[in-house]
TrEMBL record:
Originating organism: Aeoliella straminimaris
Listed Basic and acidic residues bias regions: 376-385
PANTHER family referenced in this protein's UniProt entry, alphabetically: ATP-DEPENDENT RNA HELICASE DBPA, ATP-DEPENDENT RNA HELICASE RHLE-RELATED
One GO CC term on file: cytosol
UniProt cross-references to InterPro entries, sorted A to Z: DEAD/DEAH_box_helicase_dom (IPR011545), DEAD/DEAH_RhlB (IPR044742), DEAD_box_RNA_helicase (IPR050079), Helicase_ATP-bd (IPR014001), Helicase_C-like (IPR001650), P-loop_NTPase (IPR027417), RNA-helicase_DEAD-box_CS (IPR000629)
Similarity remark: Belongs to the DEAD box helicase family.
Domain Helicase ATP-binding: 21-192
Compositional bias ranges of the Basic residues kind: 393-402
Region annotation (Disordered) ranges: 359-402
Name listed for the protein in its UniProt record: DEAD/DEAH box helicase
Length: 402
């Protein structure tokens, strides 16, 4: 393990790792509250690897449940990194990929299984995943799993797990639903709180622009030119909007791609691989995949559309400033969205700073009418007027809605 940590360049434990690892090594249950980007994966990955018994042909000893496919791949890769030099088989199971490939990997033997609740249940019903040998169950980003409706699936899985097991629950927030889950399925857990008093980390500078909807794209283009980010994520509210912004931005900026829930899993994996390798400079994404992106070189976050839920702002901005690094976040706010900005500021207990780009007007200039009696006014009067149709109202414009 020490050799693996040296190879991964993990020299000092983060506060979460220093708090969770010693307790988890004793086999006790842990309920840990910590935001993403604080080293949570290693905090449960290291104890799991240290406690493995590695019996040949035995069923898996550890199960890690995560909310998204991207996070499943990320956790598996991190555990593979930590198990360097040992014969430990970690298998990721998630939807969007052919189940036969995953069945084949499970049949060859898996020590640790990482998966989304729906696909884990699928394998359990097929008999390709047996839980009777589990020593440790991890619920990673439990709040997110409950938010997107995985509670019934999680409870079905936990009821099928051995009663004599260790349960580690890690969550950015401990909402009442998370507390109820812990009370029902955990045994006297040690509660650890690593969350900051402020919801977002201090190493992230946070700004906002007041901008009209039709000028957002021009502002985005100017902002990228000014900032020259190492890597950036641009968050949009809809899948269609994500595609549209990516197409337009790719014409003026190099290294642009997008990711959202309607894409095939193979395409999403390919985009994430290119982003982690640094071949994509700007990634346009929806909130659906926002939590599955953990790349330490992300320097900028742009909220092209202000998030519908204030909590989503915290998770979006948390993609940068990982593991104590500096980061910057910009939010585009239309004149009608002032209330949403206020709600975000109240949640994070911090005022966002207003920013402007020199020489760029974020509002459309309104043409002033000519002065009465001026040559411009006379010219306007002399212009031929359009004929007025019977029953119509002159000067009135109608727009039909779909």
């Amino acid at each position: 393990m020490l050799a693996s940590l040296e190879k991964a360049r993990y020299h000092q434990p983060s506060p979460v790792q220093a708090g969770v690892i010693p307790i988890a090594l004793t086999g006790k249950d842990v309920l840990g509250q910590a935001r993403t980007g604080t080293g949570k994966t290693a905090s449960f990955g290291i104890p799991i690897l240290e406690r493995l018994e590695k019996k040949r042909g035995a069923p898996p000893e550890a199960l890690v449940l995560v909310p998204t496919r991207e996070l499943a791949v990320q956790v598996r890769d991190e555990i593979d990194k930590l198990s360097h030099g040992r014969r430990v088989r970690t298998v990721a199971v998630y939807g969007g990929k052919p189940i036969r490939q995953q069945v084949s990997k499970l049949e060859k033997g898996a020590d640790i299984v990482v998966g989304t609740p729906g696909r884990v249940l699928d394998h359990m019903s097929r008999g390709t995943l047996v839980l009777e040998g589990l020593k440790t169950v991890v619920l990673d980003e439990a709040d997110r799993m409950l938010d997107i409706g995985f509670r019934p699936d999680i409870e079905k899985i936990l009821r099928r797990c051995p009663k004599q097991r260790q349960t580690l629950l890690l969550s950015a927030t401990v909402a009442p639903a998370v507390e109820r889950l812990a009370q029902r399925y955990m045994h006297d857990p040690v509660v650890l709180d690593f969350s900051d008093k402020t919801k977002t980390v201090d190493t992230i500078d946070q700004y906002y622009f007041t901008v009209e909807q039709q000028l957002k794209f021009d502002l985005l283009q100017k902002l990228i030119q000014r900032e020259q980010p190492e890597q950036a994520i641009v968050f949009c509210r809809t899948k269609r909007g994500t595609d549209r912004i990516q197409r337009r931005l790719a014409k003026v900026v190099e290294g642009v791609d997008c990711i959202h829930g309607d894409m095939a899993q193979g395409a999403r994996d390919k985009v994430m691989r290119k982003f982690r390798d640094g071949n994509i400079k700007v990634l346009v994404a929806t909130d659906v995949v926002g939590r599955g992106i953990d790349v330490s070189s992300i320097s900028h976050i742009v909220n092209y559309d202000i998030p519908q839920a204030s909590d989503d702002y915290v998770h979006r901005v948390g993609r940068t400033g990982r593991m104590g690094r500096d980061g910057v976040a910009y939010t585009f706010v239309t004149p009608e969205e002032g209330q949403e900005l206020t709600r975000i500021e109240m949640l994070i207990n911090r005022l966002l700073k207003r920013d402007e780009i020199e020489g760029f007007a974020t509002t459309t200039p309104v043409a002033k009418p000519p002065e009465p009696g001026s040559p411009e006014a006379k010219e306007e009067e002399e212009k031929p007027k359009p004929p007025q149709l019977p029953g119509s109202r002159r000067g009135r414009r109608h727009r039909r809605a779909l």
